[in-house]
Amino acid sequence: MNNETRSIDLVTTYLQNLQSSITNTLNELDKKETFVIDKWDRPEGGGGESRILKNGAIFEQAGVSFSHIHGDELPPSATKSRPELAGKKFQAMGISLVIHPLNPYIPTTHANLRFFIAKDMKGDLIWWFGGGFDLTPYYPFHDDVISWHQNAYDACNPFGEDLYPRFKKWCDEYFFLKHRNETRGVGGLFFDDFNELGFDKSFEFIKAIGDQFLLAYLPIVEAHKDHPYGQRERNFQLYRRGRYVEFNLLFDRGTLFGLQSGGRTESILMSLPPIVKWEYNWNPETNSPEELLYKKYLTPTDWLKNNKKRPSNESH
What we know:
Layout: H1 3-30, E1 36-41, E2 46-54, E3 59-71, H2 76-79, E4 90-101, E5 108-119, E6 125-136, H3 142-156, H4 163-174, E7 176-177, E8 182-183, E9 187-194, H5 198-224, H6 231-250, H7 253-260, H8 265-268, H9 289-297
Antiparallel strand pairs: 1-2, 2-3, 3-4, 4-5, 5-6, 6-9, 7-8
């Protein structure tokens, strides 16, 4: 087995197992509905499996998709910063998920892990990992945000003390809606073109991020799944979901890559919320919970600045 085949097999196996682990866990938590499996093929090469849960007791819609595609030529979104790969054969695989809970007190969340491999003009392998996870609350709880970032820190720290601050900053900058002058949520981790640790160690890092996701998100879901809410909170949730749509359609690299590479549109756009609304020139009431979100949580913040940062091997 050559290095290219070994790398692809290792990553594919992990991502498919992670997809199953996450969907099985969410099935058990929701109880009302389960994920429907939708396998698909890509005419240009490859395919994938999308798993969708709709109208659950906890999750209004959740999508967890695995894809493994290959082709003879990269789309423009991928070669813009890598012109040496223009016209080269490639393989790309990844898992992507977006969870839109029903209760406005549970945040929406997004995570993805991806691996890209191709050969440059000299025939040398070019590869990198990318991914991360981020949180988009509507009615945020400070302790949840701290816990979320603590989990992000714990996943990164064993691989280098610089990784969490680097990738946290990258996340804040990436998930920023320039036309709104606000972040999409409270951030987390985002990285791309990651290969600096060599394949084996970089792969271990990716697995640490993937394995940490449910540890970070499930306690938040459990804490707020029974929180009472009314039409006011529901309306605000639907309004804020509009920001999710705006970001994904205007800025998201994964969406652009998927559409430009001939990916399956239904799977690419599964991240969009099932119900959303826009209101012209809406502004929150003064001193309202909605205003708190805008004033305190939609700007880049060092959430762990005043909290003890514990290495992953310390007990919580």
